[in-house]
Amino acid sequence: MTAFFRVNGDLWVERVPLADIAARFGTPCFVYSRAALERAWTEFDAAFAGVPHLVCYAMKANSNLAVLNLFARKGSGFDIVSGGELARALAAGAEPAKIVFSGVGKTEAEMESALAAGILCFNVESAAELETLNRVAGRVGSAAPVSFRVNPDVDPKTHPYISTGLKESKFGVAFAAARALYARAAELPHVAIRGIDIHIGSQIGELAPHREAAIKLRGLVEALAADGIALHHIDLGGGLGIRYDDEVPLPTFEYAAMLREVFRGRPETLLLEPGRRLVGEAGVMLTRVTYLKPGVDRNFAIVDAAMNDLIRPALYDAWHGVEPVCVRDEPALRYQVVGAICESADFIARDRDLAIEEGDLLAVRAAGAYAFAMSSNYNSRPRACEVMVDGDRVHLVRRRETVAELFASESPLP
Ligand SMILES: *Cc1c(COP(=O)(O)O)cnc(C)c1O
């Protein structure tokens, strides 16, 4: 079931034609479906019904306040990776006691603000971070709740830039070092051991890498228990893939069933950190064709969105579906769909057969995750607006940036 479908050839979201949204708010514009977002969260949570668990949405995938607030209202936890994300999550109504803090480079200032907020857990990624966290917590007179992110050395078989659980990765601590680190943490006065954590990568299509990592993790949890280290939770990270092209996403219930099986009999609460799976397919990016440029070798459709709005094609060679919002009864031509930025990597899609004319509106599918959140102002382009549709209601959840805002914080020399 999808919230985006065609009515007499025109693409709609819930009960609203996408063309109306573009006419009202302009392009480029990200459009999210409230129903799709809520359905994705509820489906994920329900897959773990009956086992103690907490879904901590990995908010770096899409950190718009309206998206965060929807999930917070459902009781979601959040996985944050910076002090900025902490502030955003709190502003959106997140419960601090459901926030986990991941990332290899937490600063002392970020640790202080997370301790002051009273988060659930710091996912510690190095011995050096542990010592710093102990010192910072001592300074502010508290004890920091900690997990170690361990690196199971599992190949998630996804793009190298989003593989995070191989031994050569910068993330986590080596499995072999984990027991000594827990022993060290147990000695420190200002940290409290809470859990253990993995995250092996993103856009993972298969169950096997998840299972391999989970089985290794269970072994480690048992070794720690034998050492007298009891944990409150086991955090499995995120990584479930979505459908961009013809991928068949791993059903959440299969993933959940595997974890139930692997951790059967263990008393710890399971933490899950899905990002892409909760938001990716709930959004599209609308863009308009500025020019058609027939080439000697290839035809270009130059659109008003670019790599600053959607960097995934340039960064990961990612594939996004591109469709005319209103279909034309004309023969299609093969196009390179590109932006206006002065980089050859500035493409949205390559080799697509489209029946389009100048001024036509295109929908770039599955643009709810790692899309707006990774956008920039390169080439002094204001960032796009974001809209959330709820039935027949349309809410502007982030207005388009203005050109004046782009340099309002800069100043020439006196
Ligand atoms: C990015 C990230 C996630 C979410 O990954 P998805 O592939 O979007 O589910 C979860 N946990 C950590 C630590 C991450 O860095």
Give an account of the 3D structure.
There is one protein chain. By secondary structure, the chain is an alpha/beta fold. The chain has 2 domains: 4-32 and 280-406, Lyase, Ornithine Decarboxylase, Chain A, domain 1 (Beta Barrel); 34-276, Alpha-Beta Barrel (TIM Barrel), CATH 3.20.20. Helices cover 28% and strands 25% of the residues. It contains 12 helices and 21 strands. β7, α5 (108-117) and β8 (121-124) form a beta-alpha-beta unit. α5 (108-117) crosses α6 (127-139) and α8 runs parallel beside α9. The longest helix is centred in the middle third of the chain and has 19 residues, at 208-226. Bound molecules: pyridoxal-5'-phosphate. Pyridoxal-5'-phosphate is lined by residues 58, 60-61, 79, 102, 199, 202, 237-240, 273-277. Pyridoxal-5'-phosphate binds next to α10.
What's the quick description here?
The chain is of the alpha/beta class and 414 residues long. The chain is 28% helix and 25% strand. The protein has two domains: 4-32 and 280-406, Lyase, Ornithine Decarboxylase, Chain A, domain 1 (Beta Barrel), CATH 2.40.37; 34-276, Alpha-Beta Barrel (TIM Barrel).
